[in-house]
Each structure stands twice: as structure tokens, then as C-alpha cells.
Amino acid sequence: MTTNTSQSPVPLIQEKYNGAPERLSKxxxxxxxxxxxxxxxxxxxxxxxxxxxxxxxxSAEFETAIKELRQAIGVENVEVNDKALVDGxxxxxxxxxxxxxxxxxxxxxxxxxVYPGSTEEVQTTVRWANKFGIPIYPISIGxxxxxxxxxxxxxxxxxxxxxxxxxxxxxxxxENASCVVEPGVTYxxxxxxxxxxxxxxxxxxxxxxxxxxxxxxxxxxxGYTPYGDHFAxxxxxxxxxxxxxxxxxxxxxxxxPDGTDNPTWQSFQHAFGPSVDGxxxxxNFGIVTKMGFxxxxxxxxxxxxxxxxxxxxxxxxxxxxxxxxQKRILGNIPQLRHVIQELNVTGLRQADCHTGSGPxxxxxxxVAAKKLPLGECSWVFYGTQYGSTNSIAEQLEIIKxxxxxxxxxxxxxxxxxxxxxxxxxxxxxCSGVPVLRELEWLNWLPNGAHLFFSPIAPTRGKxxxxxxxxxxxxxxxxxxxxFPTLCVAGREIHYIVNVIYDRADPDMKDRAVRMMRELxxxxxxxGFGEYRTHLLFADxxxxxxxxxxxxxxxxxxxxxxxxxxxxxxxxxxxxxxxxRFRGKGWELTEKDVDLRSIGPRL
Length: 602
Ligand code: FAD
Known about the structure:
The protein is of the alpha+beta class. It has helices at residues 25-37, 59-73, 119-132, 187-196, 213-218, 314-326, 340-345, 350-353, 362-370, 389-403, 422-429, 461-478, 506-525, 538-544, 547-563; strands at 44-45, 78-80, 85-86, 112-114, 136-139, 158-161, 169-173, 178-181, 201-202, 234-240, 246-248, 287-294, 296-297, 301-308, 335-338, 379-386, 410-412, 448-453, 456-458, 484-488, 492-502.
């Protein structure tokens, strides 16, 4: 298991493949201490039940199967999940269950974890799963927190933890500005290696740097340099298909001379014939063992932020961003955050700004924000410009002239703000330096955990207002603080809501589930669909993409059944169920608000 919550120092990357870089060691230990001090739950509790077996597998069959796999890939590489569950924290997360359990902690659990050490061992495990009919669920690092963590969708599935033994940076090509990585390569690891080699290249990192470069891209995660669309910037994959066969996509489908890899594998994504890469993202059609990425040549850059006074300025801000983004005057995908995010990213807890139960009042937010460096405001826009000093200055003049159209807007550079202000961390993320700062907002509540609600809306003020008002109203009614971060591109907005809850509060968890179910349904009625979701909401979200009698899902199911007739690979991921499970009560729909127990609803 990758869990260790003892107060020994947070493992460093030179000690553990998924550890923290030395430059962040103090910060990592400090943030862990703050999170622990806000925890009332015990580190672990004795298990209520025995090992959660895979569906349709008896305990004798499970024992035989485990014995056989141990013989094939080594006893130490197959671990039965029979010990107490430990939630840990971001950098010492479990690979046995969802650390942010919105269901009962023991519900969304694996029966075992397997650590393949090579592509061949992944193939062996896949063939083994077919033989015994055991569902397997691949993770790269397993830090998909807010979207299900490391948990398998089917309780009792076997987690394939690829990262522990497959974490090599296979190539960094400085001339081509690209790399090839195995699943266990984190943003931290890739960044540190590029620094060590002194290469003029950037990586693109999400808000937190502990995730897998490959795993995040497979789940179509986002970062914040101009290379922020991670899947769009991949180039070539190697995959194990559900029958154990090996496939290379893109130019990799053509062998290179004398048995080498094709020399253009990381140069041209689409190659010849159907471009199949997309079907391996957010799906359950293959296990990715290698993946190529383009890296951005380093550039001059300038981060900044604007503040806007009134909540009602929202629509106007969005309409001003659209042309700036479409004309590519904005350098990256900027973030528009409500000022309440200034409070929690500073490490403030709800109790520091609020008395009583339920969410903060608008007045409490105003009073607390007033004391912070940006002062009283409603919206904060975080952007970064790239290019030469002169071109950055010109771009900023255009942007300032646009935002000056909103009365009371103010402009800040990092030098205008104290050292600890979030803009300094934003500047790092937006120039490809992975950090940990965003962990602070998990401190908002005791035993803080969160669900991401992540719909896509058009970049048009009036549409943005419709979705925003629905989300505001639901948060009020369900009594949650609203933490919206909008990643605003030229034509669409990733409207990311962090629904923060206390893992020890069953009523709060119940309200969070009900609010998610309602928002998915209400947003879909207006044509706003999620770009990504937690495992337990995937069926409902998939069900909203139902144009023409759900032609899209029927297409996915056709592929699934052709590639995976035994239904062993990640059944239910992104709502795609193989024939063996389909229509047998595994799907969780909008009616399933009681998620305390997961299993067939018959
Ligand atoms: P994994 O958990 O390893 O993989 C994600 C999923 O992809 C797995 O569950 C699995 O279904 C599939 N998968 C993984 N590997 C394979 C494989 N080899 N073959 C087939 N399928 C595979 N996310 C963002 O994108 N951007 C952000 O800015 C961001 N900010 C965050 C801030 C906070 C405070 C937190 C807690 C989370 C944030 N996240 C963000 C969500 C999440 O932490 C990251 O997306 C993270 O990179 C995902 O976890 P991972 O990289 O370990 O991927």
C-alpha cells in the first residue's frame, strides 16, 4: 500500500517515486500538519467486513486466482486488501479505496492491488483477469481526488497500480521538445529531471504537481500554460488491450528502422487512418503503458491578476474575455475565481470567518476578504502572458484597456502583493513549475474532502449567468459554500466547482450527493454537460449525452463488447458497462441518492 500517515517526514522524490521534491519538503510537511490538525476522524478503523470479493467470484476461486498471479509476477507484487483502510492525504494517498469517500469508506474498495513491473506483466495480469473473470482497474498514480481517487468503480475489483514499478522517464528529446513517460512519472519527477539536465523546456502541470503526467492526460485533465490541454498535447501511446494484445497509436504503429521506435512517434499525433487515440481517454478500452507528450520551449512570462468589485460584473467579465481569448491575446487559459477562493487558498478555515452552521453569508465573505491583500472585491481573474518583454507589455495594455471597461477593476502584478499571496504560486504553475499550494483549500472544513462538479458552458455572458445562477441557488439550498473556478477559453468555460465536505458528516455527504445529482440533471436540461466526473456520477453524466436514442453510448458499448468480451477492464468507467454487467443493476442513475452502499440496484 502507498499509505503512511505516521509523522515521519513526507517522502521525498529521491526516496519514493511519488514523493515530494526537496524544494517543497518544508511546505509538504507543513500542509500535512495543518490538514492533520483539522482532522477528527481516526487515522484508521478496524474493517467492518472481510475482503470485498470481485463480483461472481467465490472466496475459494479468489484464493486460487491470487495464488496463480503471485506465481506469475511475484508474491510481493500482489497484495490482498484485507487491512484497515487509511485515507492518508494527497502525498500519502491510499490505492485501496477513495480517500475522499462520499460513499461508505468500505464500499468503494478493491479486493487486491497488483503492481506490474513491465508491459509484459500488464499483459500477464490482463490474461489472468480474463481467465478468472475478475474486473481490473488501472491507475497510474491514483491521485484522482475529487473524481474517485484510486478506487475501482466495481467494489471488489482489482486495482492495477502501474506507477509503483513503472515510473521511468523513457526519453526526453530536447530538439523535438517532447518526452515519453511510463504511468508512474509525476509532474514533480518530470520537472525535476528537466531541471537536472538543464534543458530549456517546460512541462505543463495541474494545480497540484503530484499527479501522473500520463494518468491526468488519460482522464483529460488540465493545466495552465499554453500546453494546458493535456490530452491534446500527447503524441503517441502504447497500450495493452483487454485481450492482452499490444497496440501503438499514431506514428508508433509503423516500426522504426532496425527494431527502433518510429522516429516521428512523438512528432505527429494522427498518422494515417482513423485517429484512435481519443477512444482510449476517459474510457475502459485499453491500459496505457507508455505515452508521449510535447513540451513547451521555455519562454518569458508575466503573471498578473485583476479584481472586479461586484458579483453582477460576472456576465460582463465573461463577454470581455471571449474576444481576448479567441484572438489569442490572452496567453493561457485564465482562471476566474470568486473572491471566497482567496480565503481558503490562504489556508483560512470556515470557522475563522463564520459562526454557526451552513455556508458563509455574503457579508462574512466581504469582511474576511477586505483584510486580505486584494481587498474587497467579488471576482479575481488570474492570467499569464508569454513572449518578449515588449510583446508582453503590448498584450497587457490591450487587456487592461478591456477590463477597465468594468468600473472599479484593479490590476496587480506579483511585485504588488506580499510574498505569501497566491499570485506567486499561480505564476509558478503558469510557467510549468509544479507546486502544492492548492492543498490549502482542503482545510476549509474538518476532515476536508471534495467532489468536483465540472460542467462546460459557452463563453457567453448570458449562458455563463444561467449556469452560475443555478449553481449559486443549489449551493444555498443545500447549504454549501460555493467555490467556483472558471477556466475560460475563447468558446467554452470549464466551470469547476469544488464541493467541499466533511468526511465525518453523513448529512453533509448526503446533501453533496443530492446536489450533484440535481445539478447534473438541471444543467443537462439547458445543454450544459460535465467534461469529467467522479466515478459514482459517471452513469448519470453519461446518460445525459443521449442524443438520437443514446447513439453515442451504443457506439461505446459496441466497441467495449468487441474489445473486452469478458468485461474485465474497468467496468463502468465513464458509464461504459460491458455486456456482462449492463442492465443488471450496476448503473447509478439520478435516482440513486443513497450512495452508502454500492452494488447492483435490482
Ligand atoms: P490517476 O488517478 O492515476 O488516473 C486517473 C484515472 O485515469 C484513473 O482513475 C483511471 O481510470 C485512468 N487511468 C490512469 N492511468 C491509466 C492507464 N495507464 N491506462 C488506462 N487508464 C488509466 N486535475 C486537473 O486536471 N487539473 C487541476 O488543476 C487539478 N487541481 C486539483 C486540485 C486539488 C486540490 C485536488 C485535490 C485535485 C485536483 N485535480 C486537478 C484532480 C486530480 O488530482 C488530478 O487530475 C490528478 O492528476 C489525477 O490523478 P493522477 O494523475 O494520479 O491520475
